[in-house]
Amino acid sequence: MGFLDNLIEWDQQMLLLLNSYHLPWLDRFMWLFSETQMWLPFMLTMIVVLFKNKNGQAFLLILTFAILILFTDQISSGLIKPLVARFRPTHDPEIGNLVQIVNNYKGGNYGFISSHAANVFAFAGLSLLLFRNWLYTVAILLWATAVSYSRIYLGVHFPLDVICGAAFGFLSSIAFFYLYKFLIQYSSSIRFYTDRRSEQVTSTNFKKNDLYFIVLVLLMIIVMMLLAAINLTW
Questions:
Q1: DSSP structure string for 22-76
Q2: Distance (Å, whole) CA 102 – CA 116
Q3: Which of 113, 177, 200, 234 gives a 20 to 30 Å CA spacing to 170?
Q4: Residues 91, 158 contacting (CB under 8 angstroms)
Q5: Which residues of the chain have a pLDDT value below 70?
Q6: Where are the chain's structural domains?
Q7: How far apart are CA 207 and CA 52, in angstroms?
Q8: CA–CA gap between residue 184 and residue 181 (Å, rounded)
Q9: Tens-place pLDDT, residues 193-234
Q10: What is the 3-state secondary structure (H, E, C) of 178-223?
């Protein structure tokens, strides 16, 4: 058995292990956590903070985020998935009947790489590079990891789908961050980093209280999802 066969076998076994534990309330919670539209209040808060802190640059920032997510989503779904053509766990002829699913959702035929993981880690990577705040960095990376894990819990992605998707998304965010930085610094006299040291402002001129508010909104959404998931199972 070669390296690739061993890797695939490990991936299948890890999927079955991570996907094996299910509870009714956790099914509902992970389903909500995986839904993109549930995070719209969080995204709107982010937009407000960008306009509050960057004024005219906010339009370019929002455009950068939008093009980045479009890039990772289209490359992962439109190019890599059909090119690699690896079945999702739910469609895998070897273990498909052992995978636990939620709401009868099985997804499309192919799952490598995970578009969810690519998109959330692209968003997380670009925003943490932009904000440069340790609390926000920890919160957004935990959020991206949890969203990615939800796809394993739901049975629609193998661990390697998620790991490779996350790596692709994060590397893409680094490239787009430096592209944005280049456009800002070489198209105007605006300096990307500030020389002044302040307990209230990050090195990239974002008010820390605004970033803490973003984290608070994120936590509030998660708590509301959890409460909804528990109440719906009673």
A1: --HHHHHHHHHHH-GGGGHHHHHHHHHHHHHHHTTHHHHHHHHHHHHHHHHHHII
A2: 17
A3: 200
A4: no
A5: 1, 187-198, 233-234
A6: 11-232
A7: 9
A8: 5
A9: 665 556 789 989 999 999 999 999 999 999 999 999 998 755
A10: HHHHHHHHHHCCCCCCCCCCCCCECCCCCEHHHHHHHHHHHHHHHH
